[in-house]
């Protein structure tokens, strides 16, 4: 039990420093005999416990950001997630997410784990996240992190911070880079081209398509070679619809993305990342 008097000024000071609720601040100071720093640590520990207790909750809302370094050689996309859109639309939470992104860019961060160890004004981001969690009472965290390094990286944020896209190109092309990023946001390709589709994705699609063709009553009694040929054609259609370069360009459906890139100065896409809520 505390042997010192906890004043309203003490509680307000701790609340301003941590963002925690008044009752939590009063209890933190009481439990720690008025020691301000110990009370801050107590609140952080409380935040960690809250995170554990809420581990079964789904944090499907949040703020998605995408940003490049000043030289456009590196791009980072990340999601600072929360549970409700009420929190995700709050200006303070958006600013909090932006400060994390700025720290990621400034410190040349390569992973979410590394980012959590970066300090902002002397505090680790992991601790700041716990403080924010204690303040708002929702499960939050850096749930997604992607990075691209290329000769030129374009970034794009879609739908009020609900999706972010990075595109790596072989040379500077701001307008074309944005166009391609918007294509990726809208059409969600699985890879740059057919050759870069993961082998497991190809195998899964091929198995599904082959089973569908074989199950068609019209194919009853047909030789396996014919079924295989038809399935191969349908797999080709899958590549056309789901790989970036083969897709119809959203701003001009008469040409493919590959055609657009060639017309824009023989541009080549090395890689892309698409980060969305959910």
Largest sheet: 3 strands, antiparallel
Number of continuous helical runs = 11
Strand order, main sheet: write it out: 1-2-5
Structural class determined from secondary elements: alpha+beta
Question: How large a portion of the residues is in β-strands, by DSSP E?
Answer: 15-25%
CATH architecture of the largest domain: 2-Layer Sandwich
Number of domains: 3
Quaternary organisation of the protein chains: single chain
SSE string, helix = H, strand = E?
A: HHHEEHHHEEHEEEHHHEEHE
pLDDT < 50 runs, ≥5 residues: none
Work out the number of β strands. Answer: 10
| CATH third-tier fold name of the largest domain | Tetrahydropterin Synthase, Chain A
Mean pLDDT: 92
Shape: elongated
Radius of gyration: 25 Å
- Bin the helical content: 40-55%
CATH class of the largest domain: Alpha Beta
General description of the model:
The structure is a single chain. The protein is an alpha+beta fold and 278 residues long. The chain folds into three domains: 8-53, Helicase, Ruva Protein, domain 3 (Orthogonal Bundle), CATH 1.10.8; 61-173 and 180-185, Elongation factor Ts, dimerisation domain (Tetrahydropterin Synthase, Chain A), CATH 3.30.479; 194-266, no CATH class. The protein has helices at residues 8-18, 22-31, 36-53, 85-88, 91-106, 112-117, 125-136, 174-187, 199-215, 224-242, 257-263, and strands spanning 61-68, 74-82, 119-120, 123-124, 141-149, 152-158, 163-169, 248-249, 252-256, 269-276. The longest helix has 19 residues, at 224-242. The protein is elongated. Pfam families: EF_TS. Its main location: cytoplasm.
């Amino acid at each position: 039990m505390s042997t010192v008097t906890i004043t309203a000024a003490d509680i307000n000071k701790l609340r301003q420093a941590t963002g925690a609720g008044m009752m939590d601040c009063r209890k933190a100071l009481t439990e720690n005999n008025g020691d301000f720093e110990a009370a801050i640590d107590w609140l952080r520990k409380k935040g960690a416990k809250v995170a554990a207790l809420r581990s079964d909750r789904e944090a499907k809302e949040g703020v998605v950001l995408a940003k490049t370094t000043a030289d456009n050689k590196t791009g980072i996309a990340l999601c600072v997630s929360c549970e409700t859109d009420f929190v995700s639309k709050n200006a303070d939470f958006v600013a909090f997410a932006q400060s994390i992104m700025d720290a990621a860019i400034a410190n040349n961060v390569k992973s979410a784990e590394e980012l959590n160890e970066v300090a902002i004004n002397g505090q680790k981001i992991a601790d700041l996240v716990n403080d924010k969690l204690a303040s708002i009472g929702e499960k939050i965290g850096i749930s997604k992190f992607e990075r691209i390094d290329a000769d030129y990286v374009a970034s794009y944020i879609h739908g009020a911070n609900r999706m972010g896209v990075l595109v790596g190109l072989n040379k500077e092309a701001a307008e074309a880079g944005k166009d391609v990023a918007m294509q990726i946001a809208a059409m969600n390709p699985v890879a740059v081209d057919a050759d870069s589709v993961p082998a497991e994705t190809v195998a899964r699609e091929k198995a599904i398509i082959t089973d569908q063709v074989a199950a068609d009553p019209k194919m009853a009694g047909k030789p396996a070679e014919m079924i295989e040929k038809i399935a191969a054609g349908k797999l080709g259609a899958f590549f056309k619809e789901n790989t970036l370069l083969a897709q119809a360009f959203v701003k001009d459906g008469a040409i493919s993305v590959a055609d657009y890139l060639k017309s824009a100065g023989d541009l080549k896409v090395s890689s892309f990342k698409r980060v969305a809520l959910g």
